Amino acid sequence: MPYTHFLYKRWNIALPIWSLVSPLIGLGILSVAGSIDNPFFSLLMAASLISIVLSAVHHAEVVAHKVGEPYGTLILALAITVIEVSLIVSLMLSEGAEGSTLARDTVFAAIMILLTGIIGLCLLLGGYRYKEQVFIKQGTNAALTTLTAISILTLVLPNFTTTTPGPVYSNSQLIFVAIISLVLYGGFVSVQTGRHRDYFLPEDEAAVHSDPPGNLTTTISMLFLLISLALVVLLSKKLSPVIENMVVSMGAPKSLVGIIIAAVILLPEGVAAIRAARRNRLQTSLNLALGSALASIGLTIPAVAIVTVLAGFSVTLGIDTKSTLLLILSLFTISISFNAGRTNILQGIVLLVILATYLFTTVVP
Asked: How far apart are CA 60 and CA 311, in angstroms?
């Protein structure tokens, strides 16, 4: 009997070896990243990043299974947002004034990827396998109502304020928007986990699919989840210059960098949401996607506001007219799609077409 298997059996640890090894390999790659500079090593870092993301997804699912819904999806959403906030803030501090649009581009990209990409794929794959999938309308409507308000106030309203020229908030406006973002997100979380928790529970939540993991397994998963998330932030920061150079060499707008960063950050969320949809647990998928979109704005904007005020440089939050139209179209389409309480494959196709339009018009404006 292999020694590792003996330890797993003795201590009742139910975790695959790869989920523990991947972050350790990533840590080793990160330790030598500063001394090696060639394209092959960048590819190795990218491959390690993907494996660490998958490891993070697995450990997040273990923790989620232990604590139950909707706390499990909330933990993963908050974990992903911590990655996003850390990466955006670190890049803003390193780039200074040149990174004034990074927060806007990344947050907007995250919202579009979550609303049209991840939810679109969930509806497409779930509809293909099960024809129709059901969810609880009250929870989804609560999330969409909050998301509509917070996204318009943070990404569209700056285009119409006049205290400071351009699509930017003044310091007082930025602080106010940061506060209301926290209020809206905090209100949503309190509804999701307290007063109306049943709005966000899958219909088969009472059914026991498997025994929850033991305390030791959960503790190890929580530790490796934190390690994995930290490594994703650090490796993404190491890869960001490579991504920027690639975008510049393509002649594409710099906003494409925000899309790529957001896509990397949201990989764990996307994989977890799609897995849930393929298991006919669409409610879990929607909790992940909509909860992450809310966390992406509700926590990122206050963090960016603090950094901006303390560092003394401006941040551009207002999106352009084309992006505003795509944002409103996405919110409107999802609101109609979720109005009946049932989804089908066509709704997924429509959302993915909107995503394709967003990506294409970013590269070819």
From this structure: 34
